[in-house]
From TrEMBL:
GO cellular component: peroxisomal membrane
Protein name (database record): ABC transporter domain-containing protein
InterPro entries: AAA+_ATPase, ABC1_TM_dom, ABC1_TM_sf, ABC_transporter-like_ATP-bd, ABC_transporter-like_CS, ABC_transporter_sub-D, P-loop_NTPase
Species of provenance: Gloeophyllum trabeum (strain ATCC 11539 / FP-39264 / Madison 617) (Brown rot fungus)
GO BP term, pick one: peroxisome organization
Length: 763
């Protein structure tokens, strides 16, 4: 070290500086290499460790999907190549959801997307979700994006000036200046091109991040548990169709449109301001005034000819959604359609939906022709003509001034040769010309941005409609808890009302679409004044004709529908098995434990042997071997037969062992012998059954029978089924009656024969 210092001192001061700089840099680098290992090495070892992930680990990640964190967030495990990426996801806190609900009052059905204050309020409400705070990453990207957009404009002004200088030097045959200008030109090209690619990159990042924020918020809102259950109620109570289109395509289109528009709006606006400032210096006050007159005339013309792009965009998204829903329906119901050989019919339906869509898109294209023609004419030709006129002002004035100067007494500036005057005028012309061309370009882009802004208003209305409808669904009434019994007291059961916005008459003068109150259409009750008490061990069967409201009672019991009147009390452990068996995306194991996740299963300490026992009870023990093990992932909806799916539904009951299980015709496709054994098994596990069924043979497993006569009065008749012996008696009677009913045809035939004989005798 000392030797090094001595050698440095021996160097001349001029050559010492770069050596010192080099040494300092080396020291900084060295300190980084020495200091950083703790963090860098941790990362390196982490990635090295991640690289060693075995196929079993990947399999395990696929099965687990996510890990519950102590802070309530979840860490998603995403297998990617030979690694497992971990992504932490924090759910939107319920307090944030409820506080932002105030920003989403429902729009009236007559609302049309335009550039009004209503649009700004809708946009602001959505932006508060996309940019939750000033310090969030999205805000940072936005600031960086804005910086590069402004930098590009500043660089453009520099390029315009340099352009003028190069031509001036060329005209005045200044070789040195020309070469210098050219050198600067290449230097300026480096930040200019880098700025362009950064703008594109930041615009895409911003769009993606906004989409992620909005999708996460929408998911948290849409897939909410009780008491909101918005995913279930948004159609019936919210009256919103095709939510998939809103969540998948519309959010993406909104994010894209907004981030593109930001660039398309900020850049030409700054261009316009900076270029106008630059130009006004060479144009003088009168030229600047004329420039503004030009802007005003252009804006007025284009405003007059602009069609309602917002409304057009909104309709396009809706038709797009209808077409998408049609294609989705065919995919989902493929087998049913195939049984009917309904391909041709579905083809017609889909084609009609597609034609409606493209007819609309085509009409937009046609409308655009006239608009774009006017726009091009105004921006390219009117502005250029105005530009020539404006440029000529300083040039001509310069000339007059220089002529005037020649006539007067000699001055210092008169030493300028006529060549220099021409060179200066050329420089002025080239710079102004370039600025004007850029100005025309900025004006064109601003007009495009105006059209994009109108389209954004359509997308904003779509997204706002989704969020406001989800927010407007009120919480379902909480169900009073009871420990060991289900009680219904004077309960009226009916289809829930549709929530809709009704305009406040006092606000009719108001130009905005807000100040709405919620309205609700009331449906007549299906079942009236229902009073039952069901203790554990008392099994109830609900029967009655189709459409009388049997499942409606199950919906009220589950809390899906609010009772129109009366009180419902029940313990928490009630599981409803629906009529249509639902198979979740995942492994065979996931089917049994649904709605639990694999993580919950692993935590509960329950085993695969136990699951095998459950499958044996529902006579599906062959499934793991047949399908390739518990972790096999398939489209179970298609793989399992109707009866197998229903048995799987019962397997879930045996896995969760609730106090009460509501079985809504969930064994209708199961053979009678297996059905009986499953009922006995459920009872042996201490599960109290509420069965909705039309099969009289199931009565024997119940102690009470609720019959809905369906006579239009909405009354329900509750009868005791009796003791096991009485039930056996009823069974015997049922079998007796069923066999007698089977004989009716024979008796009928015999009666006809006898009548015929009598008739012959009469003749
Ligand atoms: N989402 C809904 N929107 C409108 N009406 C509905 C809705 N769900 C049910 N209903 C109506 O409520 C009535 C009762 O339906 P529910 O499903 O309870 O019948 P059910 O007695 O279970 O009949 P089934 O034996 O055929 O299953 C029916 O007339 C049905 O049309």
């Amino acid at each position: 070290m000392v030797e090094l210092a001595l050698r440095l001192r021996a160097l001349s001061p001029k050559s010492r500086t770069p050596v010192l700089a080099l040494l300092v840099s080396l020291l900084v680098l060295r300190s980084r290499v020495v200091d950083v290992p703790a963090s860098v090495l941790a990362k390196l070892t982490e990635s090295a460790r991640r690289k060693k992930v075995t196929p079993e680990d990947v399999e395990d990640a696929l099965q687990r999907v996510y890990v519950d964190e102590p802070d309530g967030s979840k860490t998603l495990l995403v297998p990617y190549g030979d690694k497992v990426n971990k992504i932490n996801i924090k759910p939107t806190p319920p307090s944030v959801l409820s506080s932002s609900a105030k920003s989403f009052p429902l729009l009236s059905s007559s609302h049309r997307p335009t550039l009004s204050r209503s649009f700004l309020r809708q946009l602001a409400a959505i932006l508060r979700i996309a940019f939750p705070s000033i310090t969030c990453r999205e805000s940072f990207i936005l600031v960086l994006h804005s910086f590069f957009l402004i930098l590009r404009t500043v660089l453009s002004v520099g390029v315009a000036k340099l352009d003028g200088r190069i031509v001036r030097d060329l005209v005045s045959a200044n070789g040195k200046g020309f070469a210098k200008g050219l050198g600067l030109w290449f230097l300026l090209a480096i930040p200019s091109t880098y700025t362009n690619s950064m703008i594109r990159h930041l615009q895409s990042s911003l769009s993606l991040r906004m989409r992620t924020r909005l999708t996460r918020y929408t998911h948290d809102l849409y897939l909410s548990s009780f008491p909101y259950l918005r995913y279930y109620r948004v159609g019936l109570e919210g009256g919103l169709e095709g939510v998939d289109q809103y969540i998948t395509a519309d959010i993406a289109a909104f994010s894209d449109s907004l981030s593109t528009l930001y660039g398309n709006l900020i850049k030409p606006t700054t261009d316009l301001v900076l270029f106008t400032l630059s130009l006004s210096r060479s144009l003088g006050p009168s030229g600047t005034v004329l420039l503004f007159v030009n802007y005003y005339v252009t804006a007025s013309i284009l405003r007059a000819v602009t069609p309602a792009f917002g409304r057009l965009a909104e309709v396009e998204r809706r038709l797009e959604g209808e077409f998408r829903a049609g294609v989705g329906r065919v995919g989902r119901e493929a087998e049913e359609i195939a049984f009917y050989d309904g391909g041709k019919r579905e083809h017609d339906i889909l084609w009609r939906a597609y034609l409606r869509l493209i007819k609309h898109v085509n009409s937009i294209f046609k409308i655009r022709i006239a608009y774009e023609w006017t726009e091009d004419y105004v921006i390219k030709y009117l502005w250029s003509a105005a530009g020539y006129g404006l440029i000529s002002i300083p040039v001509l004035m310069n000339r007059t001034r220089s002529l005037g100067v020649q006539a007067g007494p000699p001055q210092e500036s008169d030493s300028d040769s006529p060549d220099d005057a021409v060179a200066n005028r050329t420089e002025n012309y080239i710079s102004s010309r370039r600025l004007l061309l850029s100005l025309a370009d900025a004006g064109g882009r601003l007009m495009y941005a105006y059209k994009d802004l109108l389209e954004l208003s359509g997308l904003t209305t779509r997204l706002y409609t989704l969020l406001s409808t989800l927010h407007a669904l009120p919480a379902l009434p909480s169900i009073s808890s009871s420990s060991d019994e289900i009680t219904l007291e004077h309960v009226d059961v009916g289809v829930p009302p549709l929530n809709f916005a009704i305009a406040d008459p006092d606000a009719a003068e108001n130009m905005y679409d807000y100040d709405m109150t919620l309205g609700a259409s009331i449906n007549p009750p299906l079942v009236r004044d229902l009073t039952i008490t069901l203790r554990t061990g008392e099994h109830l069967m609900i029967t009655g004709s189709n459409g009388v409201g049997k499942t409606a009672i199950a919906r009220v019991l589950a809390g899906l529908w609010a009772p129109q009147a009366g009180v419902v009390r029940r313990p928490d452990e009630v599981l409803v098995v629906p009529q249509r068996a639902y198979m979740v995306a995942g492994s065979l194991l996931d089917q049994i434990i649904y709605p639990h996740s694999y993580a919950q299963f692993a935590r509960s300490g329950r085993t695969e042997e136990e699951l095998m026992g459950i499958l044996e009870a529902v006579h599906l023990a062959y499934l793991p071997a047949r399908e390739g093990g518990w972790r096999t992932r398939k489209e179970w909806r298609d793989v399992l037969s109707g009866g197998e799916k229903q048995r799987m539904g019962m397997a879930r009951v045996f896995y969760h062992r609730p106090k009460f299980a509501v079985l809504d015709e969930c064994t209708s496709a199961v053979s009678s012998d297996v059905e009986g054994r499953m009922y006995e098994h459920a009872k042996s596990l201490g599960i109290t059954l509420i069965t909705i069924s039309l099969r009289p043979s199931l009565i024997r497993y119940h102690t009470q029978l609720l019959t809905l006569p369906g006579d239009g009065t909405g009354r329900a008749v509750l009868t005791r089924v009796g003791t096991a012996e009485e039930r056996m008696g009823i069974d015997r009677e049922i079998i007796n009656l069923e066999s007698k009913l089977g004989e009716v045809e024979n008796w009928q035939r015999r009666l006809e024969e006898l009548n015929d004989q009598l008739g012959i005798q009469k003749h």
